[in-house]
Amino acid sequence: MNKLQEIINHKRIEVEKRKREIPVPSLKMRPSYNRQTRSLIESIRSAGNGFGIIAEFKRKSPSAGVIRDDIDPVDAALEYIKNGAAGVSVLTDEKYFGGSPDDLERVSRAVNVPVLRKDFILDEYQLYEAKAYGADAVLLIADVLSKNELHYLFDQAVKIGLECLVELYDEPAVEKVDFDTMKLIGINNRDLRTFSVDINHTKNMIQKLPDDILVVSESGLHSSDDIESVKRFGAQGALIGEWFMKGIKSNRNGKPLIKICGITNADDALAAAESGAGALGFIFYEKSPRYIAPERAAAIIKLLPEDVLPAGVFVNHNRSEIERIIDTTAVKIIQLHGDESPGDCNFTPAQVWKVIRPRNGTDIEILDAYTVDAFLFDTFDKTRYGGTGKTGNWEIARAAAEKYNVILSGGLHAGNIIEAISTVRPYGVDINSGVESEPGKKDIQQLEKLFQIMYGTQIGVKA
Prior knowledge:
By secondary structure, the protein is α/β, with parallel strands linked by helices. It has two domains: 245 residues, Alpha-Beta Barrel (TIM Barrel); 206 residues, TIM Barrel. The protein is built from 16 helices and 20 strands. It has an eight-stranded parallel barrel, surrounded by six helices. Strands 11-12-13-14-15-16-17-18 form an eight-stranded parallel beta barrel, surrounded by four helices. Strands 2-3 form a two-stranded antiparallel sheet. α4 packs across α5 and α11 runs parallel beside α16. The two termini are 33 Å apart.
């Protein structure tokens, strides 16, 4: 038995198990199932230079072994998009590629480009699963499906709003494809039975396809010269995993994102940025002692390095006011700090962080209803929306961090930051009064002390 057949046999058993654990009606109740999907085809067609890159996240593969196990999928996806990726592919096979549907969901929540679920799709159930975990498209491998299976899965995928990247390797598989409907074709340069790779396979196979097909070259691309080669062959896109995974830098050297909030002046903003802050918060809630006018915030944001993300903090603002402030300031993160419902949290292309102030463990049961990039956990106070200077329940935050991107906030300072991160293992931390001499004025010595502790201590984030 070759490796491909071994994978297929295991996948059939795995799918039957998942059907029993999470039946289709339960998948359809997940919040991502009914969201509007994004077109991978259109994203590739509109890419710069007429060539779209689908950048892939995968921890390991049967051919390469462990590629990288120190990269968070969201960090990788955001880095890919920063460098112009037209789409992101997420390997969801666990046994052979180290992935999971949870990786897919987290990436889908975090990005504004189409997300491809890459797996060995054999059963209609996997299509519902892909939709439920946030996929915009799925991979269908013609070489492992019969013609009837391929057509049925393609039709069912389209019916529930998913696009399909139909992958070919062997020439006989071309006969299975309905080119009148299947317009996005992937040519795999790797023989899945032997794992041998030859990028000239794209050149040979593309000659057997109609002219109006959008072709993506897959596997074995390890340099810009390889990309130029498949472009000359006629490909309009490429799916690249191992090369990008090996080249990407581990986000923040394995430490959480640090956001310094309550910025009111340029000196504090630049000091925080130079110290290592990955994000700065500007509070547009007029009742806050750290309120800043949007026009003043805009002037400060223009001074920031490109890799420092400006965040706007809003409390029960109406949508039109938020959109006006976004246009004025160019904030990249929308932090909703009030009583916003899931329907109030849909903004593009900025990231959205929803603030949660849990009183007990049951309060986090509502998180599945939201489709946001991260949840900021702050301390509960029935009289105010934040700025308490008190620590919250870290164990509740830790439980949420197992599933979601969690930004920990509330009473953090140089004296407790190590304990907080070790306990919660968050995606990021949000610090305000813990580095202030007075509301709205940062203490430079406290800032320096905080960053010295953060960058001088080996603390990892969740895998």
